[in-house]
Specification:
8 helices; single chain; about 35% helix; ten-stranded mixed β-sheet; alpha/beta; 10 strands
């Protein structure tokens, strides 16, 4: 059986500069890459942004195999919430990428440790993209990078935050979630979620899809107050589900690449088996219960 196509979609906006690091990490092993950008350069909340000409020139230079396409469309609808606009853009992006193959959607600030290994995982499951096979989401794990401090970064350790990274039938209902059964891979990515300049953090809290779900001004002041001295005392600080981020640790590195490299030298760069199988078994249990409910309702 032929291996399934690996199709990567990346929405780009005000934080497009993070693609300088994230895009080369996956370029070699992706078959097709599509970058989606609003035709009027507006975020999901309607805030305007700009992209420097040097970025487009850089894309041409690195696209040695002509894998990259640019998809421009109207991704801001004033009557929709930021999250609804995000979900809408992801669906439009998937439609532009076309049916078939594995659909992967990666944000510009998400950094693979080993994209090649993730592609091998998807290739091993190429049968799942054959027409008629049940719809499936593919889950992965994140290490959140929280703040840059002198000589390194503060990050959230040991949480192994889960998210949906790929699907065989893109029909998104909430951000990247399609609501299908989830098959977890042990893929680990770094997420430069809040580890940005103060100006970029302000722009983030004004633009993200979940901005209406928490007090963004209060959270920004919390983020500002955390430093290299007081971070050990910070507890339960996720903006939506505080307990998800229970504590912070410091990692060395003058930039993102150095930080990730140092982390991988000092830690196992894959998800621990106990975490991985807990997620796999939990999802299997949900799948069995769902099938039982369907049978019961149709009886």
């Amino acid at each position: 059986m032929a291996v399934a196509l690996i199709k990567v979609g990346m929405p780009i906006s005000y934080d497009y500069k993070y693609l300088y690091h994230s895009l080369p990490l996956l370029y070699e092993h992706a078959d097709r890459i599509t970058l989606a950008v609003d035709k009027d350069y507006r975020t999901w909340t309607g805030i305007p942004f700009t992209i420097e000409d040097s970025f487009w020139n850089w894309l041409k230079q690195i696209d040695t195999h002509k894998k990259i396409r640019i998809y421009r469309d109207d991704f801001f609808v004033p009557d929709l919430s930021p999250m609804e606009n995000q979900t809408r853009e992801r669906n439009l992006l998937a439609q532009y990428m076309g049916p078939g193959g594995w659909h992967i959607q990666v944000d510009s600030d998400e950094y693979f440790i080993d994209f090649e290994a993730f592609v091998r995982f998807l290739h091993r499951h190429s049968r799942l993209v054959i027409r008629g096979h049940p719809k499936m989401d593919i889950g992965a794990f994140l290490i959140p990078m929280y703040k840059q401090i002198p000589g390194g970064y503060l990050y959230v350790p040991d949480t192994y935050e889960t998210f949906i990274l790929a699907t065989n039938k893109p029909d998104y209902v909430f951000a990247r979630k399609c609501g299908y059964p989830v098959l977890y891979s042990n893929t680990l990515l770094f997420h430069q979620t809040w580890a940005r300049t103060p100006q970029e953090v302000l722009q983030k809290v004004s633009s993200i899809g979940a901005r209406t779900e928490f007090d963004t001004a209060k959270y920004y002041h919390l983020w500002q107050s955390i430093d290299a001295h007081n971070y050990p005392s910070i507890r339960n600080f996720h903006p939506l589900l505080p307990h998800v981020w229970p504590r912070l640790e410091k990692g060395d590195g003058g930039n993102v690449a150095d930080f990730i490299s140092t982390y991988c030298m000092n830690h196992c760069p894959v998800v621990p088996l106990r975490v991985y199988w807990r997620r796999r078994l939990g999802q299997m249990k949900k799948s069995v219960l769902h099938k039982l409910r369907v049978r019961h309702s149709s009886a």
